[in-house]
TrEMBL record:
Pfam families reported in the protein's UniProt record: Aldo_ket_red
Signal peptide start-end: none
Binding-site list for substrate: 62
Site keyed Lowers pKa of active site Tyr: positions: 29
Name under which the protein is recorded: Aldo-keto reductase family 1 member A1
NADP-dependent oxidoreductase domain residues: 2-248
A Gene Ontology molecular function term of the record: oxidoreductase activity
Gene3D superfamilies per UniProt: NADP-dependent oxidoreductase domain
Length: 285
């Protein structure tokens, strides 16, 4: 959605030689309407045109589900639910992602919102293993099993919504999906550690993620908070801090895609049948 704006800024920076391309790491994603082999190259080429780049550093499949291509809004059933593309095939799409690496259009490839079974299936049927798995991770959804699996496979995990993404409530409301999102930043345990160390609750949460060997991509448009989110390398969390933060696990997913009517996944349960043999697999970990 913002690739054209980012592309204009990148071109300005690179043309002025104030930054070198090799000093930037740029990731973009294959969107759900492009989640089929025939669309991978077209979608990536469109992103590169908008970003005004010849390659990206990482290209991720955004979701394990796909939707039919449209010129505008999603296709919907008569009841308003979004139409799923039941022809989505992870293996065929992944093989085309591998072709994009071989063509030099992306340096690495990965997935977002995939679960362990889906990732294992890609590994078993690939020549290029996923380099990165981007999933929701925070103290209320700690993803131990998935993170340990990825570490064993040499796959880097990136945590999105590491601060809980309270702002997603507004997106839900605009879509007519009412759901209260817990405010992790207001958690008293997190606040107590922050007060003791003289830092912000956000810095505690981000440090906790890094200490687990996971990358974090917090979202903010506030310059002060952006700087604070980067300033997390001059303090340490104790073993006791890590232990009490681990005790905050609630199995609560912030981004359940309920803002897409028809994709109300819940925390653990919604299933869809794709071309995965005769197996049913949960969308998310």
């Amino acid at each position: 959605m913002n690739e054209k704006a980012i592309g204009r800024v990148l071109k300005k920076w690179l043309d002025s030689e104030s930054v070198r391309r090799e000093d930037l790491f740029i990731t973009t994603k294959l969107p759900p309407p492009g989640n089929r082999a025939a669309c991978v190259e077209k979608c990536l080429t469109k992103s590169l045109d908008d970003l005004q780049l010849s390659y990206v550093d990482m290209y991720l499949i955004h979701t394990p589900f796909g939707v039919p291509e449209t010129d505008g809004d999603f296709q919907r059933h008569a009841n308003g639910d979004i139409v799923l593309d039941l022809e989505t095939n992870h293996i065929e799409t992944w093989k085309k992602m591998e072709d994009m690496v071989k063509a030099g259009l992306t340096k690495s490839i990965g997935v977002s919102n995939f679960n362990k079974n889906q990732i294992q299936r890609l590994i078993d049927n690939s020549t290029i293993k996923p380099s990165n798995v981007q999933v929701e991770v925070h103290v209320y959804l700690q993803q131990d099993d998935l993170i340990n699996f990825c570490k064993e496979e040499g796959i880097i995990v990136t945590a999105y919504a590491p601060l809980g993404s309270k702002g997603i409530e507004n997106l839900n409301k605009m879509a007519g999906y009412e759901r209260e999102i817990p405010n992790i930043l207001d958690n008293s345990v997190v606040g107590g550690i922050a007060n003791r160390l003289g830092i912000t609750p956000a810095q505690v949460l981000l440090k906790w993620i890094l200490e687990r060997g996971v990358a974090a991509i917090p979202k903010s448009t506030n310059p002060t908070r952006l700087r604070q989110n980067l300033d997390i390398f001059e303090f340490s969390l104790t073993e006791e801090d890590m232990k009490v933060l681990k005790g905050l696990e609630k199995g609560i997913r912030v981004c359940d895609f309920g803002f897409f009517k028809g994709f109300q996944l819940g925390i653990h349960t919604t299933l869809a049948k794709y071309k995965l043999g005769n197996n049913f697999l949960t969308f998310f970990s």
